[in-house]
Write a structure and sequence with these properties.
The chain has 171 residues and is an alpha/beta fold. 21% of the residues lie in helices and 15% in strands.
């Protein structure tokens, strides 16, 4: 969990009103990739960021020092490079509302070990997860109507690291 210093709390408090009035999506669409601690600081200060957006935007947590994060219900997409380079990220909770995980979404998250991918996710883009030997991805078994599309260039890696389970209890 990210802890805020007093000066960071004050900065965030001063910016909250401006952010609420402005377009949050526009703010994060133009977000520089080296400022990934702003979103965690907003959240830690009590700002309900996901009240305004339904996705984890590109670069939103890029390079952040967060260790765990529960993506809120209602989020439908984890966009490209959303958590790119979050080397401290150990745990991520993906809700049943997420349908897609973008390119390089978790690339560089070298501390990530176990990830449960809900069956709502139907598309995982290339290099979405770090190619680590010690990472384990799991997802419920799927039928013909609920396929999971994986990038062709990553298929061999997923064969070794993605486990299909009967229930979520295998986390």
């Amino acid at each position: 969990m990210l802890t805020l210093r007093d000066n960071e709390k004050e900065l965030i408090q001063n910016r909250k009103a401006a952010l609420e009035k402005n377009n949050i999506k526009q703010f994060f669409n133009n977000f520089p990739s080296n400022c990934g601690n702003i979103a965690p600081m907003l959240i830690a200060s009590g700002f309900d960021l996901f009240r305004y957006i339904d996705r984890v935007m590109p670069n939103m947590f890029n390079g952040s020092t967060i260790e765990d994060f529960d993506i809120p219900e209602g989020v439908i997409s984890i966009d490209r490079q959303a958590f790119y380079g979050c080397e401290s990220l150990q745990s991520i909770t993906i809700p049943d509302t997420v349908k897609q995980i973008g390119q390089e979404a978790f690339e560089g998250c070298t501390s990530l070990k176990n990830v449960f991918i809900p069956d709502s996710v139907v598309n995982i883009k290339s290099h979405a997860f770090p190619k680590l030997d010690n990472i384990k991805l799991s997802t419920p078994r799927r039928g013909a109507r609920n396929k999971l599309y994986l990038p062709k260039q990553d298929i061999e890696w997923y064969r070794e690291h993605l486990v299909f389970i009967d229930e979520k209890e295998g986390e």
